[in-house]
Amino acid sequence: MKAKITLREGVSFLGETDSGHAVLMDGAPGAGGKNLGPRPMEMILLGLGGCTAFDVVLILRKSRQIITDCQVAIEAQRAITDPKVFTQIHLHFIVTGKELNPKQVERAINLSAEKYCSASMMLKDTVKITHDYEIVVSSM
């Protein structure tokens, strides 16, 4: 896996992946940015959320659960002083579907957190990561 970061202007950077996708990242105006894209640290949260949501959806589908939506609301705290690493991250899963089994949803989330999510595995030794979930009954 490869990626490339290229300075555009100020503190705006274009991130390009070897899968052919690009994302513009930028800093806050107070740090010389123009708020043209997410901050690099926000990208870490998005990566974590995307990685675990991917796992949860796949696990639930393999368990024959009828899932129609999965959202992950993420809240994080950072250290006050540099390097301002994440100290706590909470993932709140909102899983929507028909006749979802709460035990299967919890199992899928735990399997992602403890075994499958690469992003979680990288962060778990330095960040306290917690999660919870809610199930929404789909009308479809």
From TrEMBL:
The organism of origin for this protein: Nitrosomonas mobilis
Protein name: Protein YhfA
SUPFAM superfamilies recorded: OsmC-like
InterPro entries reported in the protein's UniProt record: KH_dom-like_a/b (IPR015946), OsmC/Ohr_fam (IPR003718), OsmC/Ohrsf (IPR036102)
Gene3D superfamilies xrefs: 2.20.25.10, 3.30.300.20
